[in-house]
Amino acid sequence: MEDIKKAAEILINAHHAIAFTGAGISTESGIPDFRGPQGGLWKQYSPELASIDYFLQHPKEFWLFYRMRMSTLFAAKPNRAHHAVAELEKLGIIKAVITQNVDGLHQAAGSRNVIELHGTMRRAVCLACGRTYPMDVVIKKIDSGQIPPLCDECGGILKPDTVLFGEPVKDFDRARELALMSDAVLVIGSSLSVYPAAYVPIFVKEMGGKVIIINMEPTELDYIADVIIQCKAGDAMTLLLKEIKDRLGIQ
Length: 251
Ligand SMILES: [Zn+2]
Fold this sequence. Notes:
Elements: H1 2-13, E1 17-21, H2 41-44, H3 52-57, H4 59-75, H5 80-90, E2 94-99, H6 105-109, E3 114-116, E4 119-126, E5 132-134, H7 135-143, E6 158-162, H8 172-180, E7 184-188, H9 199-206, E8 210-214, E9 227-229, H10 233-248
Parallel strand pairs: 1-2, 1-7, 2-3, 7-8, 8-9
Antiparallel strand pairs: 4-5, 4-6
Residues 126, 128-129, 131, 151, 153-154, 156 line the site of zinc ion (ZN).
């Protein structure tokens, strides 16, 4: 409880705070942690399946596997933690969310300024011309037998617009700029072990800002944290949002 109070104080006093989120914020929505220690979905099969090399060599097999996975992921709804993050943005406490997740649940909860470092599974992109397609359009192509799905414009192969192993992260320059202008970062549900994403809290710390970490397990960057809350994302964010609203006198 002391930690929640300390975190609330840091966020209220910050001039420019951001959130940084990982798989742990979406586990309560039923989305498995793909790279996490337990139940990593890719591990259950083979991480090679999620690499760009595998995709380029076996686009048909990749899409068949991906299509199977998507049914669960598309049914997922944002949870308490996503909603709390969105509300903190509406209150002006948080200016942006930088996420490692590809599930689109921050936007579904109402967050507006979201940077998706690992892309999004809500979209596919043509490898030849770069045109993007909403995933429901792509699913229709697959379900009508077009595997791999192809671009209407140029006939190129479509790829989920997520960052596969072996591909560079997206929008990292924007994320770095935001981190460097921030004096506080609220990390939620990330083990902070995947780079370059994990540089985000490091940049904030290096610029003299505060680092709050909410995660079930210890993280690799606990040593730079000002506050560590080892707890479920939903529980911690519910308490934190209430504490902030109480202090601001908001119902
Ligand atoms: Zn195309």
